Amino acid sequence: MLLLKSIRVHYDKREAVKGIGLKVAEGDFVVIIGPNGAGKTSILNVISGVVNPSDGEVWFRSERIDGLPPEKVAARGIIHVPEARRIFPRLTVIENLEMGAYLQKDKTKAKRELERIFHLFPILKERIRQRGENLSGGEQQMLAIGRGLMAGPTLLLIDEPSLGLSPLVTQHLAGQMTQINREGIAILLVEQNARMGLKLANHGYVLTNGELVLEGTTAELVENEEIRKAYLGL
Ligand SMILES: Nc1ncnc2c1ncn2[C@@H]1O[C@H](COP(=O)(O)OP(=O)(O)OP(=O)(O)O)[C@@H](O)[C@H]1O
Ligand SMILES: [Mg+2]
What is the pLDDT of residue 107? Predict the structure, then answer.
């Protein structure tokens, strides 16, 4: 479905991503883990067209998409739920969700999608008329993902959803992401919470300082000595 070939990202002269290859199959759940500044967000930004790679290629369903503007990438079904859950604070829950449906011309489909989102995140239905800024961190994250779903994605890019959330809320969110994936949407997740990321995904990449240091099924990765020491505290 998605293929990255030798992606490099430079910010001025500094190389932040140093030739990364990565794959997501249809319906897959893939995680990228790694410490601060490893280049995780940069990779998602390259895929969604927010950042132009200085080298390498991005392929989606057999078409090259690097260099396309973000709205064209989104129109192909790749939706980015960015770091720090950038919802619209002054807009209500329903208004935020409707903003996500701007690509969706089919109103009946948008309505069905809304029902699905409320089924997945019942708290959003309860808070439908509240402003985004009045939601808790966990609710804002659910709203950010819900807004992404309103665009009808086939691939969701989700950046650090668990950041700043309590273990209980994180656990909720993990279940909801699993559910989204089970409904057929591929997910590429970026997480500093390696424990959660490796539990949810079926395939994982470990990124350090702009380079891939390990890759494998998550079953393999959780058994890996280095991962157990450096990321799982075992
Ligand atoms: N717009 C930018 N301009 C300059 N440098 C940047 C920019 N965005 C990221 N960087 C640098 O590139 C490197 C990789 O950043 P990136 O945000 O991709 O890492 P990350 O793995 O997502 O980190 P974090 O865990 O902190 O979110 C970092 O050293 C960062 O300071
Ligand atoms: Mg980041």
Answer: 82
* Mean pLDDT, contiguous 10-residue spans, the chain (234 residues): 98 96 97 94 98 97 96 96 90 94 80 93 97 95 96 96 93 96 97 92 96 95 89 78
Q: Is residue 35 part of a domain?
A: yes
| Judgement on whether residues 223 and 136 belong to the same structural domain of the protein | no
Q: What is the residue whose two structure tokens read 């990779």?
A: 43
Q: What is the largest CA-CA distance in the chain?
A: 51
As given in the structure block, the two tokens for residue 137 are: 């961190």
pLDDT at 232: 81
For ligand 1, say whether the CB of 36 is within 6 Å of any of its atoms.
Answer: yes
Question: Is residue 40 within 6 Å of ligand 1 at its C-beta?
Answer: yes
Residues 103 and 207 in one domain: no
Atom of ligand 1 nearest to the CA of 83: 27
Q: Quick check: is 116 in a domain?
A: yes
Cα–Cα distance for residue pair 231/209, rounded to 1 Å:
15
Three-class DSSP category at 108: helix
Q: Which residues surround ligand 2, an ion (CB under 5 A)?
A: 40-41
Write down the residue that tokens 């489909």 correspond to: 109
- How far apart are the CA of 30 and the centre of ligand 1, in A? 20
Q: How many structural domains are present in the chain?
A: 2
User: Domain limits at 115?
Assistant: 85-152
Same domain, 24 and 52: yes
The pLDDT value recorded for residue 84 is 80
